[in-house]
Design brief:
The chain is α+β, with helices and mostly antiparallel strands. The chain has four domains: 3-154, no CATH class; 167-235, no CATH class; 241-297, Serine Threonine Protein Phosphatase 5, Tetratricopeptide repeat, CATH 1.25.40; 304-364. It contains 18 helices and ten strands. It has helices at 3-12, 50-56, 62-75, 79-85, 91-108, 126-129, 146-166, 185-190, 198-204, 209-221, 232-236, 242-255, 259-272, 277-297, 310-315, 320-327, 335-341, 346-358, and strands at 17-23, 26-33, 36-42, 116-121, 138-145, 173-176, 196-197, 225-228, 304-306, 362-364. Strands 4-1-2-3-5 form a five-stranded antiparallel β-sheet. A three-stranded antiparallel β-sheet has the order 7-6-8. A hairpin with a 2-residue loop joins strand 1 (17-23) and strand 2. Helix 1 (3-12) packs antiparallel against helix 7 (146-166). The two termini are 38 Å apart.
Length: 365
């Protein structure tokens, strides 16, 4: 079932619950109420890191954010409450940033063609009904209609194809030949004495890649931006692009079986360029190799059993999803069955099991 069809079904049927989508080695979940998106979560901490979001959107500077985080640790209030209630970020600006970020994360799913999904109706899944920590997911206020996201996603697919014909890679060189008040990217380029590679430009701005490349395309369309082919020496050196440097490092980490580190780099590369073919291929390989390695350590026929006392469990900082999985390790389910029957996903289940086993919370029979 294609991802756009999922959104259309949720909206037209006015469903309420949680849609979990596993894309390669990443898992995202969308909470919906009567067909509208109300919260966003992900196993990638960057997708739900509110501190990273407000800093990237220019809503707060690093020094002030550091003080806010220190205050959060002392007061145990949520970061969102401190930012708004203490006057660090206007509520309207924070809501707008959260909505824009949520749409951007969801719209990235339109660029993936492999994966799996699970929809759990509200009130039917103990994992999803359990109260989550305040910063475990990003709430969306006001909610976003699935129809709005669907229309934007289809438009983005069309725009990516048109933009790629003009700006085919991060090696493409750009320089401003004019200015416009509604295209701030031209101001940055105008301050550069020489043409700048698109890949380097993305490193200098904190906004989402799609927003920046849209501005570049619009500037080119108005005749305010000149686009050149990459210099010959850069074209020959495939490591000149920041994305290719990430991919090269990830490939080395995969050879060393540092799967999580390699996956993090590949996700960063695909955040910058969702169409990077080698990054996608390596992400598939990272997942497959990590699963093979995990199953070698934890064969599917072994049965995990919770063996620690309640005091030890309370001392562990476990997420609601990890506690849900741990509650199923009662001696009735082997590892293969757990990977199938829990909504956490195969790789996340094995990662959690490895954490439990190393911490002495479970034994394998």
């Amino acid at each position: 079932m294609p991802f756009p069809d999922l959104l259309q079904w949720l909206g037209e049927a006015r469903r309420s619950g949680t849609l979990t989508v596993s894309l390669d080695s990443e898992e995202r979940y969308l909470r919906v109420r009567e067909g509208q998106l109300i919260a966003l979560g992900s196993d990638d901490p960057r997708s739900r890191d509110l501190a990273r979001l407000v800093l990237a959107r220019g809503l707060i500077d690093e020094v002030r954010l550091k003080r806010v985080i220190e205050g959060k640790e002392r007061s145990r209030r949520s970061l969102r409450a401190i930012l708004v209630d203490d006057g660090h970020v206007p509520a309207a600006a924070l809501h707008a940033a959260l909505r824009a970020h949520a749409k951007d994360v969801v719209l990235q799913s339109f660029l993936w063609y492999d994966g799996r999904f699970l929809f759990s109706d509200a009130g039917t899944d103990p994992l999803l009904d359990e109260a989550a920590p305040p910063d475990a997911e990003l709430p969306i206020e006001p909610p976003i209609s699935t129809r709005e996201v669907l229309m934007d996603g289809m438009r983005r697919l069309d725009e990516w194809k048109r933009i790629a014909e003009v700006i085919p890679s991060d090696y493409t060189m750009v320089h401003a030949v004019g200015r416009a008040p509604d295209l701030p990217i031209l101001e940055l380029l105008a301050d550069c004495a020489e043409p700048l590679a698109v890949g380097e430009l993305f490193l200098r701005v904190t906004r989402p890649r799609f927003e920046v490349i849209q501005e570049l395309f619009e500037a080119w369309h108005r005749g305010l931006l000149a686009i050149d082919s990459p210099p010959q020496q850069i074209a020959k050196d495939r490591k000149a692009s920041p994305i290719d440097m990430l991919v090269h490092t990830a490939r080395t980490l995969l050879e060393e079986k540092q799967f999580d580190e390699a996956t993090a780099l590949l996700r960063s590369a695909l955040d910058l360029d969702p169409y990077h073919a080698e990054a996608k291929q390596l992400l598939h390989r990272a997942r497959a190799d990590q699963l093979e390695d995990m199953y070698h350590q934890f064969p599917p026929y072994r049965v995990p059993i919770f063996s620690a006392g309640p005091d030890r469990l309370q001392a562990m900082a476990l997420s609601p999803r990890e506690r849900f999985l741990l509650s199923r390790m009662d001696g009735r389910w082997d590892i293969g069955a757990l990977c199938v029957m829990t909504p956490l996903g195969e790789l996340e289940t094995l990662r959690a099991l490895k954490k439990f086993h190393h911490a002495g919370l479970v034994v394998l029979r």
